[in-house]
Design brief:
- By secondary structure, this protein is an alpha/beta fold.
- The chain is 35% helix and 19% strand.
- It has 19 helices and 25 strands.
- The strands form 6 sheets. Strands 1, 2, 3, 4, 5, 6, 14, 15, 16, 17, 18 and 19 form a 12-stranded mixed β-sheet that branches. Strands 20-22-23-21 form a 4-stranded mixed β-sheet. It has a 3-stranded antiparallel β-sheet with strand order 7-12-13, with no helix packed on it.
- Helix 13 crosses helix 14 and helix 14 packs parallel to helix 15 (387-398).
Length: 556
């Protein structure tokens, strides 16, 4: 059996100019990165503003497990499947972070015969967007410490700087550091730390900005810390936004590539949904909606994280909403939620499947009853799935008036996604009464409670540590009307990764509240979630290699 990278390398790709032509993108709006990648000028959106939007399809999933769900694979295969049934589709994905590529999670280019290519480029550096984001983040960090070194005219309290440095790598050693050591000319010693680049507010700003002017305005609002008098200090006060925007001017342009079957694919932005808002850029999504009849996009991790933030943050800011939602699950993953260990997931176990099904059904109920959107469950097929197991899933979903479609895109590409595509088209024709999980005019505590009780089905929220004091300060400073970006483990509805399925009788602990004023939301850190992951015992990097011809191996 060929690996993902072998399948991708064997693909005969079309020139990116041909892919752009399928969407009617003029050559003057393209910036070529070789033969198979291009950036698209974001100003194309203004030229298309009078064009009717296509249908928007959101692909999300159950809470992830070691068994894997194949959400990106399904997203790509669905877009290919829509083309197979005669629909003009565009896929819109997030960019992979180098940290997970070299760690354990893997990349974000799909798998099997439902991938975006060039797969190696997409997973390694791509067009340099993340490097630009990291550089802009660290420029601001350097300007903060330089300002303090040069006299500290803004009276910044070094103990209350909230802006951290960033690197796009899983490096636990950098979570907490002391910098500025040495002689007096080497800076002011202080406690500091690194976040992974995708968790940087600069990433969220880039993903939500509409143009250069909006980008600069958002960057200027970033709160970097507080003065000795407890007043917020912004990047604008440090006069950093112009230089930061200069570093980001090309990164602001969406990247255009293709699937194995030649379906156009925008890949742009990549915040993690467990520690950030977890969506590709709003510009890429809007472009796909203008250029295609169906824009198929994804949100990170399970629907409790990625879909919640897509709907409550991105859709709210962009004044858009999906016409249909796909929830991806596998029989194997549901059995894991039912308590089956990884080495026994290939065995039929209807009892364990029934125990794990509440995880899927809770996601279904949230989409249909909280957000009032039509949805379909896509079962990502494995050869070990039995008819009895598939029938059980279909029966339980039908009890909630939700159809189930078997997705065979990993093995068959677009041909294996036709049934799913047909159901998505049917759902997109239905009227829906989309609504948010909360109104932004609620208090911060009320919004936290709404997400915790409606989406996670917790009993409530407990503010611990500094969170009560931070909440009071944020509301006094006028940030109380912003939406909430929950940072929570992806493995559970709760903030404890060991509580699988659909747990009950738990509370969510919020230990830190921080404003991302440029992005336009408040980040709530729950449980033990961290903004800088570490590498596993055997990192994927150990298996990756390149030969004398430049051919990469071991990349999935």
């Amino acid at each position: 059996m060929r690996t993902d990278i072998e399948i991708a390398q064997a693909c005969e790709k079309e020139k990116i100019t041909q892919i752009a032509a399928k969407l009617g993108i003029p050559e003057e709006d393209l910036e070529l990165y070789g033969n198979y990648k291009a950036k698209v000028d974001f100003r194309l959106l203004k030229k298309l503003e009078d064009r009717k939007d296509g249908k928007l399809v959101l692909v999300t999933a159950i809470n992830p497990t070691p068994a894997g769900e194949g959400k990106t694979t399904t997203t790509v295969g669905l877009a290919d499947g829509l083309r197979k049934i005669g629909k003009k589709s565009v896929v819109v994905l997030r960019e992979p972070s180098l940290g997970p590529v070299f760690g354990i999670k893997g990349g974000a280019a799909g798998g099997g015969y439902a991938q975006v290519v060039p797969m190696e480029d997409i997973n390694l550096h791509f067009t340099g967007d993340f490097h630009a984001i990291g550089a802009a983040n660290n420029l601001l960090a350097a300007m903060i410490d330089n300002h303090i070194q040069q006299g500290n005219a803004l009276n910044i309290d070094p103990r209350r700087i909230t802006w951290r440095r960033a690197v796009d790598m899983n490096d636990r050693q950098l979570r907490n550091i002391i910098d500025g050591l040495g002689a007096r000319a080497d800076g002011t010693p202080r406690q500091d730390g690194f976040d992974i680049t995708v968790a940087s507010e600069v990433m969220a700003v880039l993903c939500l900005a509409s143009d250069i002017l909006d980008l600069k305005e958002r960057l200027s609002k970033i709160v970097i810390g507080y003065t000795y008098e407890n007043k917020p200090v912004t990047a604008g006060q440090l006069k950093a936004q112009g230089a930061m925007a200069a570093l980001l001017k090309d990164a602001l342009k969406p990247n255009l590539v293709q699937t194995l079957e030649g379906t156009p694919a925008f890949i742009h932005g990549g915040p993690f949904a467990n520690i950030a808002h977890g969506c590709n850029s709003l510009t890429a999504t809007r472009l796909a909606m203008k250029l295609g009849d169906y824009a198929v996009t994804e949100a990170g991790f399970g629907a409790d994280l990625g879909a919640e933030k897509f709907l409550d943050i991105k859709c709210r800011m962009g004044n858009i909403h999906p016409d249909a939602v796909v929830i991806v699950a596998t029989v194997r993953a549901l059995k894991h939620h039912g308590g089956v260990p990884k080495d026994r997931l290939n065995e039929e176990d209807l009892e364990a499947l029934e125990k794990g099904l509440p995880n899927l059904l809770q996601h279904v109920d949230n989409i249909t009853n909280v957000y009032h959107l039509p949805c379909v469950v896509a079962i990502n097929a494995f050869p070990t799935d039995t008819k009895a197991e598939l029938d059980l899933i279909e029966k339980k979903c039908k009890e909630r008036n939700v159809n189930v479609a078997l997705s065979e895109v990993w093995a068959k590409g677009g041909e294996g996604g036709k049934k799913l595509a047909e159901e998505v088209v049917r759902l997109c024709e239905q009227e829906n009464d989309f609504s948010y999980a909360y109104d932004t005019d609620l208090t911060i505590k009320e919004k936290l409670e709404a997400i915790a009780t409606k989406i996670y089905h917790a009993d409530g929220v407990d503010l611990v540590g500094n969170a009560p004091k931070q909440l009071k300060q944020l509301e006094e400073l006028g940030y109380g009307d912003l939406p909430i970006c929950m940072a929570k483990t992806q493995y559970s509805f709760s903030d404890d990764q060991n509580k699988l399925g659909a747990p009950r009788g738990f509370r969510i602990s919020v230990r830190n509240l921080k404003v991302s004023a440029g992005a336009g939301f408040i980040v709530a850190l729950t449980g033990e979630i961290m903004t800088m992951p570490g590498l596993p015992k055997v990192p994927a990097a150990e298996k990756i290699d390149v030969d004398e011809n430049g051919t990469i191996t071991g990349l999935f």
